């Protein structure tokens, strides 16, 4: 018998394409259970929980859950790792792909861009801001950067605000019209791992959903949408 109350999901944007394209429908077909998703950067999800919202399941950057341990509202010690993704770069459709094959070429590409778009609050944007500081090009890049609070950054290369978009590879894929050049060079690549945790009051439906996130169906969906299954 179908579950009458949908599972309340808080999830990072990074896995949304896998969920929208495959997993939510596949889970409902298998179990009859619906899942209502709220998608935000991990920093915003943490804020929602701190402000009193209570998901049945939360999927976020694995290392972030420790910040919520003292609240006692999530089973943070029983994390289930589901996937990871690296950071990449996208340009407008039809544009000549810039050279990002080495760190020096990558730096030159960023410095030569009219504007680089990245997120203020997402894991990729926070990492990128630190990276360009380490590379010594923070001021030059940020002087003409397009900073976006949250969402899918590649939209900025479609509407002309920027000619380069920086975001996790799985999130860049959410804007199929944009041209993904590739991941960052290995020497400066950064992977974000995502895990699922249950709310302390979550029921059997939520537990079934977390179990489903490590099935072959789920792993295939991650791989098809720019994620690496764990």
TrEMBL record:
InterPro entries: ModA/WtpA. It holds the Pfam family SBP_bac_11. It comes from the Bacteria. Gene3D superfamilies: Periplasmic binding protein-like II (3.40.190.10). This is Substrate-binding domain-containing protein. It comes from Actinomadura fulvescens.
């Amino acid at each position: 018998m179908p579950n009458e109350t949908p599972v309340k999901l808080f999830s990072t944007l990074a896995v949304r394409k896998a969920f929208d394209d495959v997993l939510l429908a596949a889970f409902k077909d298998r179990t009859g259970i619906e899942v209502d998703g709220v998608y935000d950067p991990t920093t915003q999800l943490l804020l929602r929980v701190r402000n009193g919202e209570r998901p049945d399941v939360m999927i976020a950057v694995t290392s972030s859950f420790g910040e919520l341990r003292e609240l006692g509202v999530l089973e943070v010690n029983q994390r289930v790792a589901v996937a990871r993704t690296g950071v990449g770069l996208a340009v407008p459709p039809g544009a000549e792909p810039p050279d990002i094959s080495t760190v020096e070429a990558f730096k030159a590409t960023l410095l030569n861009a009219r504007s680089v778009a990245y997120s203020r609050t997402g894991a990729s944007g926070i990492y990128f801001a630190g990276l360009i500081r380490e590379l010594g090009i923070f001021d030059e890049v940020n002087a003409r950067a397009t900073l976006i609070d949250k969402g899918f950054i590649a939209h900025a290369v479609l509407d002309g605000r920027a000619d380069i978009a920086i975001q996790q590879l799985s999130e860049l894929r959410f804007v199929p019209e944009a041209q993904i050049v590739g991941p960052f060079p290995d020497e400066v690549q950064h992977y974000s791992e995502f895990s699922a945790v249950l709310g302390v009051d979550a029921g059997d439906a939520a537990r079934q959903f977390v179990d489903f996130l490590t099935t072959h169906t789920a792993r295939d969906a991650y791989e098809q949408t720019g994620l690496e299954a764990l």
